[in-house]
């Protein structure tokens, strides 16, 4: 798990204003396991379009449930996606601010794709980030003026090792661990 302290409501803002952004390749997307909350930012009237793929994990056939909450924390959309199926919740943002996407894949996993905005996963000690993925790049914000931060993780044992490399925005390796 990661131990980072930020104020999501104050810190989440548009990453790119106008124009296109380089979307991650399909093999770079994380498969989130069990339950996760994601955040995104939208201005009033902007289109929110998020594709949810409920991915089969071995014998599990659980349906994925989702809720999209607005900046006022009211549920804007919710539903379920059967295993091996996809669904794309779409709506025009009624308010400017931070939106929350709650996902529960139960014993399965979910891949999330966004065509026009960045999404960030939330992780706390009570609700750690649960990923099942191949080699991907993750980004996180360390606020200006911070004197330190903590990143923690746990691999899946001898058959599911983890490699962690933390770099600065300039590409300098600050930490590396493999195994």
Summary tags:
globular; mainly beta; two-stranded antiparallel ribbon; 179 residues
Backbone structural class: mainly beta
What is the number of strand segments?
Answer: 13
Shape: globular
Task: Say what oligomer this is.
Answer: single chain
Low-confidence stretches: 1-17
Cα(first) to Cα(last) distance is 16 Å
Would you mind describing this structure in some detail?
The strands form three sheets. Strands 2, 3, 4, 5, 6, 7, 8, 9 and 10 form a nine-stranded antiparallel β-sheet that branches. Strands 1-11 form a two-stranded antiparallel sheet. It has a two-stranded antiparallel sheet with strand order 12-13. With 179 residues, the protein is mainly beta. It is 2% helix and 43% strand. Strand 4 and strand 5 form a beta hairpin. The model is unreliable at 1-17 (pLDDT under 50). It has one helix at 8-11, and strands at residues 2-3, 31-42, 47-55, 64-69, 75-81, 86-87, 90-92, 97-114, 120-122, 131-132, 150-151, 163-167, 173-178. The radius of gyration is 17 Å and the shape is globular. The protein is built from one helix and 13 strands, in the order βαββββββββββββ.
